[in-house]
Amino acid sequence: MTVSNITTTHPTSFLLVGIPGLEHLHVWISIPFSFAYTLALLGNCTLLFIIQTDAALHEPMYLFLAMLAVIDLVLSSTTLPKMLAIFWFRDREINFYACLVQMFFLHSFSIMESAVLLAMAFDRYVAICKPLHYTTVLTGSLITRIGMAAVTRAVTLMTPLPFLLRRFHYCRGPLIAHCYCEHMAVVRLACGDTRFNNIYGIAVAMFIVVLDLLFVILSYIFILRAVLRLSSQEARYKAFGTCVSHIGAILSTYTPVVISSVMHRVARQAAPHVHILLAIFYLLFPPMINPIIYGIKTKQIRDHVLSLFQRKNV
Would you call 93 helix, strand, or coil by DSSP? Predict the structure, then answer.
């Protein structure tokens, strides 16, 4: 394996270290990672199969769930195969352009996931606060436009990154201290003025997380007000019960982000592998846990899964 002369504008390839400081444990670390990835693949593919085959599930809530499942599949599949190749076969080399593509997909689909979670909050808001207008508000055309807007926003925000990284001269070696091509990990290898990349990356992250999370919180404030106005306690439980799965998905997605952000500021002296493990947790945990949450808490999906098992046992 060779890495090209990095005195040119950019190297032909980078070397991914994996998890710095834990290289001797890569094989053992790969066991829970491969298990989580397998669960993510099985769970999300099963969700997509159920939603696609059952016409009763062709409703806004489940269409948004299908979008989330596709995003989770792409997010985990963008990073995990290469990560496992590093852990199992020490295949650390990644082509420069493949690295940029991986980074683009990783960050773009993370932004799309945030947008879909916001759309699902809007779906629950309309279902609980304006139930009589649910079918007229959340039409098929609106759902399509929401999906297209999520893709457009992500692509628009992330398209500049590969072009910004191409213009740098990489004189700090080919070693990326990470197990996938994360934007700031690549920027650290570049020489010259990288302030714009630093500011742009932070600004986009703050814009997406703060704005989307703010609207999600506002949606649930209105939902909570509507639920508390219901006359019977049973009706309140039933109404809020329809939101439990979505709240679980929000917590599984945003909790690792918040923890990682706090760790970067509070525990700056922490070993690099701590931050990298948190980043991997963010990529693996939501795709693995979201199908489980929706499978357990959503009756229609749970019944469909049980019927599939019953057919196999007959």
Answer: strand
